[in-house]
Amino acid sequence: MPCPNRIYSGEQTSPTILREQLKRIGSLSRQGMDAGNKGDFETAFSNMDKALTHARNLNKKCLEAKILNNLGILYTLRGNWDEALLYYDKSMNIVVESYGVENFLYKTLQKNILYLFTPRATPQAQ
């Protein structure tokens, strides 16, 4: 199921603007994960929150689910297991409702949730 091409409720956007918005989301997400991997959680969460807002404004459920997964990873890295589980659960709900269980993100989320209960591996980013 493709994501709709709109920025805000009902507003259509050109492919060029959409491409730029998607690049911005990707950049914010990458910067957030890089900052989190370096222990700079203030910058990490700030960038990820901005990316999540943009993804939601575009109504891109696929990106929203990936960013929620990455927020779960950041909370895991910070040691906030309960928060991590909440974000993984939010992501999982979107994935299951929108895309089913036969996809890569669903399997990634399963591994990340399992990590919370058996900390032996590294959670996987999207």
Structure characterization notes:
The structure is a single chain. The chain has helices at 15-37, 41-58, 61-78, 81-99, 104-117. The protein has 126 residues and is mainly α. It has one domain (15-117): Serine Threonine Protein Phosphatase 5, Tetratricopeptide repeat, CATH 1.25.40.10. Helix 1 packs parallel to helix 3. The radius of gyration is 15 Å and the shape is globular. It starts with 14 loop residues before the first helix and ends in a 9-residue tail after the last helix. The model is unreliable at 1-10 (pLDDT under 50).
Q: What does this entry show, briefly?
A:
With 126 residues, this protein is an all-alpha fold. It has one domain: Tetratricopeptide repeat domain (Serine Threonine Protein Phosphatase 5, Tetratricopeptide repeat, Alpha Horseshoe). It has helices spanning 15-37, 41-58, 61-78, 81-99, 104-117.
